[in-house]
Write a structure and sequence with these properties.
two-stranded antiparallel sheet, about 325 residues
């Protein structure tokens, strides 16, 4: 996801997808500095969306205990819900709010219909994982059936204001996406840390059996968690649709980046997951200095494999808030 100013700077020298394009081929160091600054802002934009999706994924993973592929579906549904509301004449603001509520409700409904039954039958996490993959595939095909595979958009046709940060620039809409994603993450983190609901989630995530013995309303906690995680994923999809086209498979790349961010950042805290998401976005963005865009995803998974081998707990130095809060 690159802002228009970035394309102008290096279109001429990323020619025909060359594998390595030397930096000294650029006109001068000033031009390189301009490009790097623009790439940092592009990484901030992409990383904010990655981080929001990764937070949604991690919240569901901690409580449900499996890699929920439904997050990719909820991401896609958030964009399509917003598109449907927008075409009915609502504003972008109402379309965004509606996408959160509708996606959260959809995620909760699917959980009650499918995953609660599996939990009652003591199904393993592998079975739940396979069920979530099935839900993603079915949901994606239903979306393709309803909306076809055409590229859709809610961006509108009006011109946007360019906001400059030195030699770099973002559109007003891109800046809104960054601020909205970061604000949502901050609100969720504060709520989970200081509210009674957040305390109950941490208790359930640490030890479900003990939470039941203590009399915590496990069913209610699970329902609220699923609604929260699904709604956040839908909100991330809505924000992405403000700057890019909407299509049925858009959720899978977002899900894969969320999984990579969780592995790189570790499961010790949401802050680690957010750092992992930003690191991934920065790697993808800066790699354009020497590699074609086709290498971006490959570099992310190389980084993920590196962390799995050498730093399985995630980025070193991240405080383990789960242990600290459980004491």
């Amino acid at each position: 996801m690159l802002s228009p100013g970035c394309y102008i700077l290096y279109t001429d020298w990323l020619v025909n997808g060359a594998i390595f394009e030397p930096l000294f081929a650029l006109p001068n160091n000033k031009e390189v500095n301009r490009m790097i600054l623009q790439l940092f802002f592009n990484a901030l934009l992409t990383g904010s969306l990655y981080a929001l999706t990764a937070v949604a994924f991690t919240i569901l993973y901690r409580v449900l205990g499996f890699f929920h592929f439904g997050v990719g579906l909820y991401y896609t549904m958030g964009a399509y819900y917003a598109y449907s509301l927008y075409t009915l004449g609502t504003s972008h603001l109402l379309a965004g709010i509606g996408s959160i509520l509708l996606t959260g409700t959809t995620g909760l409904g699917l959980d009650l219909l499918v995953f609660r039954t599996l939990r009652q039958r003591k199904a393993s996490s592998q079975v739940e994982l396979l069920a979530s993959i099935g839900i993603y595939i079915i949901g994606q095909n239903l979306i393709s059936l309803m909306f076809r595979d055409n590229l859709l958009s809610i961006r509108g046709s009006y011109s946007e204001i360019g906001i400059f940060f030195g030699s770099a620039s973002l559109t007003s809409r891109q800046l809104l996406i960054i601020l909205s994603a970061q604000l949502a993450i901050i609100i969720v983190m504060l709520w989970l840390k200081y509210s009674q609901f957040g305390l109950e989630i941490r208790a359930l995530a640490n030890n479900e059996s003990l939470a039941k013995i203590m009399g915590l309303p496990v069913g209610r906690i699970l329902a609220l968690t699923v609604f929260l995680g699904s709604g956040l994923a839908g909100f991330a999809g809505f924000l992405a649709s403000l700057d890019q086209n909407i299509f049925p498979t858009m959720g899978m790349p977002a899900l894969l980046m969320a999984v990579a961010a969780k592995i790189v950042g570790g499961d010790r805290s949401l802050a680690g997951v957010i750092n992992g998401a930003m690191l991934i976005a920065l790697l993808q963005s800066l790699s354009l200095l020497i590699l074609p865009a086709a290498w971006q995803d490959a570099l992310v998974f190389l980084l993920m494999i590196f962390f799995l081998i050498f730093f399985p707990s995630g980025i070193p130095g991240i405080k383990d808030t789960q242990k600290a809060e459980s004491k």
